[in-house]
From TrEMBL:
UniProt-listed PANTHER family: CARBOXYNORSPERMIDINE_CARBOXYSPERMIDINE DECARBOXYLASE (PTHR43727:SF1), DIAMINOPIMELATE DECARBOXYLASE (PTHR43727)
Reactions that this protein is recorded to catalyse: carboxynorspermidine + H(+) = norspermidine + CO2; carboxyspermidine + H(+) = spermidine + CO2
Natural source organism: Desulfovibrio fairfieldensis
Protein name listed in UniProt: Carboxynorspermidine/carboxyspermidine decarboxylase
Keyword Lyase appears in the UniProt entry: yes
Cofactors that this protein relies on: pyridoxal 5'-phosphate
Amino acid sequence: MDCLDFLFSDETPVPSPCFVLDEARLAANAAILDEVQRRTGAKILLALKGYAAWATFPLLSRTGTGPLWGVCASSVDEARLGREEFGGEVHAFAAAWTEAEIVELLDLADHIVFNSPAQWRQFRPVIEARNRARRAENPIECGLRLNPEHSEGAVPIYDPCSPGSRLGIRQRHFDPADLEGISGLHFHTLCEQGADALARTLDAVEKKFGPYLPACRWINMGGGHHITKPGYDLDLLCACLTRWRQRYDARIYLEPGEAVALNAGWLTATVLDVVMADMPVAVLDVSAACHMPDVLEMPYRPEVFYRHEGATARAGAAGERAWTCRLAGKSCLAGDVIGEYGFAAPLEAGQRLVFGDMAIYSMVKTTTFNGLRLPSIGICKAGNASGENRFRLLREFGYADFRNRLS
């Protein structure tokens, strides 16, 4: 019995709502990422902005049983989590750093990437003083983020190279003198995309910044690589990474978040009521606004599973099944709507639904808007165990979690 079927089984102890991490699928993703590393010599980091469930880090990190070299962090708190719980290398990038944050990062990060030459000039003295104090022991390596002005993303809010983007240095603003003391360069153009998009990005970077690449000790190609998605062209990815590693004699880094935990998490939900509007609306004990905000931001339509005639079934698009309804959250936001789906039969209060691919960019973005409690978090272990031995509840949330955020 796989994890999804287990969530619908009569013996399941999984509460609702609950994010359920799928150990077997995490391990399968890690194996694909390790294949890329072995074939190319590249180092893959976990982007904590996409997935930060630290209870599973031993499955992913080389300091545990996994293959990944470390993490990339977008804040001091992510860097600390990576240092304390993941181990390995900690790379940090933010659109801007404060002086207090840099002071904290001095004991947390191995690599710090700056978004502008001005920030590098501002913080270079304190970083170099730290490196001199430590001498040859674990010096912090610093880099600059480039903007090749090459857009691959379809959704502007997620496109780092969209017009007006604040992320990275454009060619016309790039001064080679700013590379003094810099050991590597970083760029990021992708969002849920294939190796063909990376290949085009690499051509754009070489066209605009090619003269500066041979001096790099390391090159970070950012995230957004959909490496573990079925059909992804691993051969093209490996060819790109190998070519650049050999051409520039540099360490190559990738920092995916989504690929690490793609399709490796579920969100259980329960139908609370079915009300009639222009169509039937099933009101659930989860909220798009609070628990899966990318449904509204991207937007995207998550897969939905349910039980029908004793088997696990997948909901279809509106009109594809005998009965169509709108799934909606329980918050007071009028637009707290997940989408319209087709089911084989009408939903009823008390019925369980399960949303797919809920490990990434959901758990890290949840809110307590309206005072709605966050879903519990648990893990479905791999193997043939059943019942209580198959599931471990990691965290429950209550009133204190809401109250303590606000004063």
